[in-house]
Specification:
About 55% of the residues lie in helices and about 10% in strands. It has helices spanning about 10-20, 30-40, 45-55, 60-70, 70-95, 105-135, 150-160, 200-215, 230-240, 260-265, 285-295, 310-330, 335-355, 360-370; strands spanning about 140-145, 175-180, 185-190, 220-225, 245-250, 275. The chain has a six-stranded mixed beta sheet with strand order 2-3-1-4-5-6, with helices on both faces. The chain is flat.
Length: about 375
């Protein structure tokens, strides 16, 4: 029952107290959605999409969640399960009635059938990285030497004076985090202390924190000062980001420059290098273009595309893929056909976890505990 009455909060509260006094109780978090799942009105992936819609942080996340709510993930998973079930049914029938159902050549046929299923699972798993970006945003750390323009860049990206900017090197001592949207992508931007050798105890702590944040980042924006020569601090940063996803921003191009992209390449830079001026807000359009190319890669712009945004779903897909690979291994090693069904059934079960058709009660309760009241 939902109650809609006239008056303000006080009147609503008195009506609610009266209803509860006569035996009603407030709905638990997610109870309406949970009842729909338990009564077969929606599968578990669709139920989880409800909370994803509520928490969507950008347009891409909303589209992906709405598609999942409409059954896009369920349709894809059911298609894979049907193919696996057909294979299990054929093997079981042939083993029970070998006189009428021949298994001759079936191992090779099954091997061919498994390849597109495994490729489809791998495609969904790869795209789940985009799903993480959709649901959580890209954790981005700004790194660089003191006074390179890191805080100025943060202020440009946020559109407000969030960080203190001075000509004094080492102004930023602690971590400052802001939520930013660049185009349709959500970013959690972290400004950190400048990286340099220092005897200042507080600044040392800030440098240590900066490196810790950068280790956990999805993306590093390395801000290099083009108006001063590269030094050991720059080379330390370049070595640190060597194998990381990063963009190098050659800042202060409005001043007389003495460092160019070729100098950074000679120092070991492998990542994209952009020339910008944070003070004049120049180069931001190119930065947006590179970010879209780096993370979206044209793969999640379609409303019809299935994108896995849930870590639980990704884990189930990885386990199902492993089971199908084990079937292929059994075929290659010439194992008896009844060995195939063990791993095929395991894959079928793992995919069923996504839909809630093979799932424990404790997991269901844990999922719906995350919902808000009245959903």
């Amino acid at each position: 029952v939902e109650i809609d009455c006239h008056g303000g909060v006080f009147v609503t509260q008195r009506v609610l107290e009266t209803v509860l006094k006569h035996g009603a109780r407030p709905a638990e978090p997610g109870e309406f959605t949970k009842r729909a799942f338990l009564n077969g009105r929606m599968d578990l992936s669709e139920a989880e999409a409800v909370i994803d819609v509520i928490h969507a942080k950008n347009n891409f996340a909303l589209k992906a969640s709405m598609n999942q709510l409409k059954g896009s993930v369920a349709e894809k998973i059911r298609g894979l399960r049907d193919q696996i079930l057909d294979a299990i049914a054929f093997i079981e029938a042939a083993l029970d009635d070998p006189e009428h159902i021949s298994m001759d050549g079936y191992a090779e046929e099954l091997n061919r059938q498994l390849d597109p299923m495994i490729r489809e699972m791998e495609r969904l798993i790869r795209r789940s990285e985009n799903g993480k970006i959709l649901s959580e945003g890209i954790r981005t750390v700004i790194m660089g030497k003191p006074n390179a323009g890191k805080s100025s860049l943060l202020n440009v990206l946020t559109g407000q004076e969030r960080a203190i900017v001075t000509d004094i090197a080492g102004t930023t001592r602690d971590v400052l985090e802001e939520q930013v949207r660049i185009g349709d992508i959500g970013f959690s931007i972290v400004d950190t202390a400048g990286i340099r050798q220092t005897e200042d105890i507080v600044e040392k702590i800030g440098v240590k924190k900066a490196k810790e944040e950068a280790n956990d980042a999805d993306l590093i924006l390395y801000v290099a000062d083009s108006s001063v020569p590269l030094d050991e601090n720059d080379r330390e940063i370049l070595s640190f980001i060597q194998e990381k996803r990063a963009i190098i921003l050659l800042n202060k191009n409005d001043l007389q420059t003495c460092v160019g992209p070729e100098d950074l390449r000679q120092a070991g830079a492998k990542q994209p290098i952009l020339s910008i001026s944070a003070r004049r807000e120049e180069g931001m359009e190119e930065l947006e273009r590179v970010l879209k190319q780096m993370f979206l890669d044209g793969e999640i712009t379609s409303n019809d595309e299935v994108v896995i945004t849930n870590l639980r779903h990704r884990t189930c897909l990885e386990e199902a893929r492993t089971s199908l690979c084990m079937v292929k291994q059994s075929i290659d090693e010439g194992m008896p056909e009844d060995f195939y069904t063990i791993d095929l059934m395991e894959a079928y079960t793992k995919l069923g976890y996504i839909l809630g058709e093979e799932v424990e009660e404790d997991l269901v309760n844990r999922i719906f505990e995350k919902f808000c009241m009245g959903k």
